[in-house]
Design a protein that fits this description.
Strand content: 15-25%
Structural class: alpha/beta
Subcellular location: Cytoplasm
Catalytic activity: tRNA(Cys) + L-cysteine + ATP = L-cysteinyl-tRNA(Cys) + AMP + diphosphate
Oligomer: single chain
CATH superfamily of the largest domain: HUPs
GO molecular function, one term: cysteine-tRNA ligase activity
Largest sheet: 4 strands, parallel
Number of helices: 16
Bound molecules: adenosine monophosphate, zinc ion
Keywords: Aminoacyl-tRNA synthetase, ATP-binding, Cytoplasm, Ligase, Metal-binding, Nucleotide-binding, Protein biosynthesis, Zinc
Radius of gyration: 26 Å
CATH class of the largest domain: Alpha Beta
Protein name: Cysteine--tRNA ligase
Helix content: 40-55%
Number of domains: 3
Length: 458
């Protein structure tokens, strides 16, 4: 008996000892994740620039790092996630100007929209959400440190980072300096020592939005904000840095260079995680291309937060994911199918599912985790109570909410039954007429083998 108990304990211990694997953009390898401190994890994620309501691409990034946050919390006692708000930027200033509203009213409003939309996707709030405008002092201190250590220079009111002062410049993007200059199409200002040198501080007119600094009235460069805020909340060395693949260069490369130079001997972030793009017809969704759909628009067109989340999880986070009606409809169908099974059982009890944990620990293999949910759902449908408990736990862990069962009015069901009979009798004219009647009452009828499914429109 004691031997049997020991074996059971050993098996559960081994199951809980799963390693987390992550694709690290810095080493270009999938690696076992070892935090600096064995019980705690520090993670920084680049957050939104708040000038327009978040689009579906922004939300993909939010969901990817939410899954990582949830996974890390399952393995470590203490996980600190910092996600910044970029509330000073030329795009923000221009947008406020064109709408004739104050900059801080715009950024406060858009930050609220971001919170609302991301909360509907069941993303957990980060532990700290620092705003750039309230960390100007920390940015100035870091810039001063860079000037003191000869990694930055002051010219014509600008402070620029001297890329030639850092021999590892390019280690993250893995490109030569020439390639980086060409790729970034950096503005080659005549006062730059090297075309790749980037702005830490730039001057602006006294009447423009800005801040006082040792170099005069001006505004910080974008990259310094993440370096200063990660240092303020996580210290010089931390575990994970996340963001979209578009940020790898120049944003993350520059963050890495200036942080290492400002904090001599530090490695800055050790694991760099980059999510792939959400695309539209194969092209990156972006505000500048104008091919974006906001999260709000998608929710209002009838796809709730869990359906959108399911859609994101169908594809590995590093791969591109195309947004189209079919993909969203498929996600909705899948969530409905799983939810229908849960409703048939009456159990509120849950049990951790090791398979789902193992799939997620393998570099967040969410598509395998979803496939496992469907296996659990079919077992659950056949009355397997254990599978049902694991399914409930897995849905909760992945942040997917069971969809409420739609109550279809009796008169609609009656017409649908009459239509089924008409179809069986090959009376297509009557079947079409009844379909129209169903649609006029706000429902959609979908034909299955020898039956139908009804769904509310919108
Ligand atoms: P932004 O508000 O543009 O600074 O972006 C906020 C976050 O969303 C960053 O991590 C971006 O890399 C990410 N992001 C922006 N567009 C996309 C996209 N089309 N697909 C995936 N992530 C994106
Ligand atoms: Zn950043």
């Amino acid at each position: 008996m004691i031997a049997l108990l020991s074996i059971i304990l050993l098996i559960s211990y081994v199951k809980c000892m799963t390693d987390i694997f992550l694709s690290n953009s810095l080493t270009k390898r999938k690696e076992i994740f070892y935090p600096l401190n064995k019980d705690s994890v520090k993670m920084y994620v680049c957050g939104p620039t708040v000038y327009e309501r978040p689009h579906m691409g922004n939300a993909r990034a939010a969901v990817v790092y939410d899954i990582l946050f949830r996974l890390l919390k399952r393995f470590y006692k203490d996980v600190v996630c910092v996600r910044n708000i970029t509330d000073v930027d030329d795009k923000i200033i221009n947008s406020a100007k064109s709408q004739n509203i104050a900059i801080d009213s715009l950024t406060t409003q858009i930050t609220q929209f971001y919170h609302q939309d991301i909360a509907e996707l069941n993303c957990l709030p980060p532990n700290v959400e620092p705003k750039a405008t309230t960390h100007i002092k920390q940015m100035i201190e870091m810039i001063e440190q860079l000037i003191k250590s000869s990694h930055a220079y002051v010219v014509q009111g600008h402070v620029l980072f001297d890329v030639s002062s850092h021999s590892n410049y390019g280690e993250l993007a893995n490109r030569s300096l020439d390639e980086m200059i060409a790729g970034a199409r950096v503005e080659v200002a005549p006062f730059k020592k090297n075309p790749a040198d980037f702005v830490l501080w730039k001057p602006c007119k006294a009447e423009d939005y800005g801040f006082e600094s040792p170099w005069g009235w001006g505004r910080p460069g974008w990259h310094i904000e993440c370096s200063a805020m990660s240092f303020a909340y996580l210290g010089a060395d931390f575990d994970i840095h996340g963001g979209g693949a578009d940020l790898m260069f120049p944003h993350h490369e520059n963050e890495l260079a200036q942080s290492k130079c400002a904090n001599s001997g530090s490695s800055f972030a050790r694991y760099w995680v980059h999510n792939g793009f959400l695309t539209v017809n194969g092209e990156k969704m972006s505000k500048s291309l104008g091919n974006f759909k906001t999260v709000r628009e998608i929710i209002e067109s009838g796809f709730n937060g869990s359906v959108i989340r399911y859609f994101y999880l169908t594809t590995h986070y590093k791969k591109p994911l195309d947004l189209n009606d079919k993909a969203l409809e498929d996600a909705k169908k899948a969530m409905k199918k799983i939810s229908a099974v849960i409703h048939k059982t009456d159990s509120k009890k849950v049990k951790e599912c090791h398979e789902v944990i193992n799939f997620l620990a393998d570099d967040m293999n969410t598509s395998a985790a979803l496939a496992h949910l469907h296996e659990l759902a079919s077992k659950s449908q056949q009355g397997d109570e254990e599978a049902n408990k694991q399914l409930l736990w897995s849905l909760d862990f992945l942040g997917l909410e069971v969809m409420a069962k739609e109550v279809i009015p009796a008169d609609i069901i009656k017409i649908a039954q009459e239509r089924l009979q008409a179809k069986r009798e090959k009376d297509w004219q009557l079947a079409d007429l009844l379909r129209t009647q169903i649609m006029e009452r706000g429902y959609k009828i979908l034909d299955t083998d020898d039956s139908y499914e009804l769904e509310k429109i919108g």
